[in-house]
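The step that takes the researchers longest sounds almost clerical: writing a folded protein down as plain text. The outcome of that step, for a single protein, is printed below.
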Amino acid sequence: MSGRHRRNFSLTGIILASATAAVVVIGAGSWVGYEQLAAQDCSGQVKLNVAAAPEIAGAVRTTAQKWMEGEDAQVGGVCVAVSVEDVESAAGAATIAQRHGVTLTGLGAGQGKGTVPDVWLPDSSMWLLRVSSEAPGFVPTDREPIAESPVVLAMPAPIAQKLGWPKKKLQWKDMLATITGGGNALRPGIVDPTRDAAGLAGLLALGGAAGSDAAGTQKKVFALRALAANSSSIRQDLLEKFPRSVEDVTTALSAAPLSEEDVVAFNAGKPPIQLAALYLDPAPAALNYPFAVMPETDPQKQAAAGAFHDVLRGQGFRDALAAAGLRGPDGAAGAGFIAPAGAPAVAAPVNVVPADAAGQAAAATRAVTGINQVLGSWAAITLPGRVLAVFDVSGSMLEKVPTAGNITRAEVTQRAAAQGLALFDDRWAVGTWIFSTDMVGSRPWKELVPITPLTSGRTELNGAISQIIPKPDGDTGLYDTALAAYRNVQDSWQPGRVNSVILFTDGANENPGGLKRGELLAKLKKLRDPKRPVRLVFIGIGTGVDRNELTQIASATSSGGVFIAEDPARISDIFLEAIATRSGA
């Protein structure tokens, strides 16, 4: 079985043009059958390139071919030749992101080597959200789901039976307790959620089950590390880790978030140990296969895409989906669908986006925030990095935070720093500075701990967090500190890692005698080095920060971002978003 997969979110788009066409479907990039097309009485021809997730590509191709063979082979005298190519969703996302000048976490710039299609059918709308959150210019049309596959917890049947499957209805909090439960815990695994929508949906579900308090954060970190210990970059590799004999059941992989279609395809191979599909509550975002027309597609091809989409709304396509182990977009399956034991007859669509534009924008923002936070957690645990964390200790950090029990901004920041440090695994190196004004003579910043591998420096760094104490009469020496921190990370730059400065501040620059903004911007631009990129990220605390000021500074570097926690109690969440993104916000 080839690698595959996923999705979720539905937004309604393009008004279908009236005129369109006979469609000739050609597989995997070839144009076999062109002569037959040319023999038809067509007044013109449009070539429509479709990139589809591998598990759905066959159904798309077969349905279009049947349409060609019917009486509706021509519409308005225009013939449309459709080429359907199997493209992994992560690869498609990397290609489209690269076209828009950005990269996604976990997908390097060198991975986007393909060609941008006219229509993209990834396994999940989460891919559309991830690309658009990094590249605002990416606004595909239509985006209506054409299929569905619920995200389940796949588990060897003998293990699932011990948990009460298929009669007992289990919840994600039950699985979280089992994963973090010590000696009898499951041996969970996952396909890298930066590259797999089902893995991402599973992490979102586990995160929701853990909660956001201190105890929940600890459970989440434990679960993420357990999943990371058996993670795979592609689905096929993960599936190979499941037991192949009764003897393997106690030592092999015992649970992983996958799609229903994955389980159907795996079991169709009649393995010695079948997989059970556990439909846990609350249901994660299902894979929904959006029909996304790319923004650069010309009007004639948009019309052709609209007509082709109409064909995919028919019963013939639903039945073709059933043969591929997929459901229709409403959660109901076509004829011949072989459901896993315990599967619902109809898997209700989830995460339906409001019909009004304002509701759509708000829902998309919430979804992107949740995605970025969980990917930030995953990146901290699995991706090696170097970060210099720089904390504002000016007098305004003594201000109370009502939404955090009236502790000070500095105390809220200390909590966020402790949680973040606990999340980073030992492949990270971390340093800590504090800044205000006149911290060391006239210098506005002070080094607490230089960038140090966590294998040797975790205890010292934990101790340094208690030194994030405001200077009551201190102002904000932002410009000089930002420049010094950037230079520090660039001078000690290491290949193979994300080298970053993350600077927390609650105010605008106030440092008489220090750098002016223009001077800072000029120096940062001069320091930019494509061979030693440094990501400069600002996390604004409260409403006193100047977003324009911070954005100008971040934009002067090769890579940066600005994230504002207007409610300081949300610093930890904003911190995770900052780690997860690559081009900033």
